[in-house]
Amino acid sequence: MSGAGPAPPSPGSLATHSAIADSPEVTPPESSRHWQRMRTETLIAPHGRIVAEYFDIDRSRSIPPQRRPEASRPLDSLPDPDRGFQAVVIGEPQRVFYGSQSTMTSPVFEHYGVQLWVPEIGGPIDPANEAHELIMSMYGGISKGERTRIRTRVRAAMTAQALLKGRYSGGVRRTDTCSWTRARIPTRPELLTARGCTGWPPIPRRLGWCEGSSLST
């Protein structure tokens, strides 16, 4: 079965550009914004022009687009017939979508008749094209796998650093030189009696007494 895909916007139509910044330690936000904008302009240039730009900085791609400050703005504008644009162009799907986010977001654009353009597809996504769906799912999987690998490597590196260098890697630190002989936490009436209070003043939640304790490091 074959069928015609979505028609490209007519010349002079308007589009918005949506992107997300790379990690600051890898690429500065300005550079990330520029190269993604260049890709979208190259893709949309023969058909229209970009009238708005939505660029999230310091936001994880694992956060759904509906919860990102900038990416949520074009989504919120979709129900408005006077939204001012006919298509949304993605700078790079691996930066914008994570896991199955594209599968959850594409039907919203289709419902309101707004095309979603991606450079890797060379134009608008055809909701009826299985190949387009597979391509977007693949990039979502790559994005999720990339983030998972980074998290795994960092945790493994911290563990190795603690074992080899003796550096503290978080959690409850246990040493063989710490000894506690006796600890007692007074009751609330005892505290009031010691203070000479008749009411119930606020007492810190972690107030306690420690007798005969010693700690050496």
Radius of gyration: 28 Å
Number of helices: 6
Distance between the termini: 75 Å
Shape: extended
Mean pLDDT: 76
- Range of helix content: 25-40%
Structural class: alpha/beta
Order of SSEs: EHEHEHHEEHEHE
Strand proportion, as a percent range, falls in 15-25%
- State the low-pLDDT regions, or none: 1-5, 207-217
Q: Biggest sheet, strands in spatial order?
A: 2-1-3-4-5
Main beta sheet, described? Answer: 5 strands, mixed
The number of strands is 7
Features:
alpha/beta; 37% helix; 217 residues; 6 helices; two-stranded antiparallel sheet; disordered C terminus; extended; 7 strands
Describe this structure in words.
It is a single chain. The chain has 217 residues and is an alpha/beta fold. 37% of the residues lie in helices and 15% in strands. It is built from six helices and seven strands; from the N terminus they run βαβαβααββαβαβ. The protein has helices spanning 29-44, 72-77, 93-96, 101-111, 130-165, 188-195; strands spanning 13-20, 48-56, 87-90, 115-118, 123-124, 178-180, 213-215. The chain has a five-stranded mixed β-sheet, with helices on both faces. The chain is extended. It starts with 12 loop residues before the first strand and ends with a strand. Mean pLDDT is 76; it is low at 1-5 and 207-217.
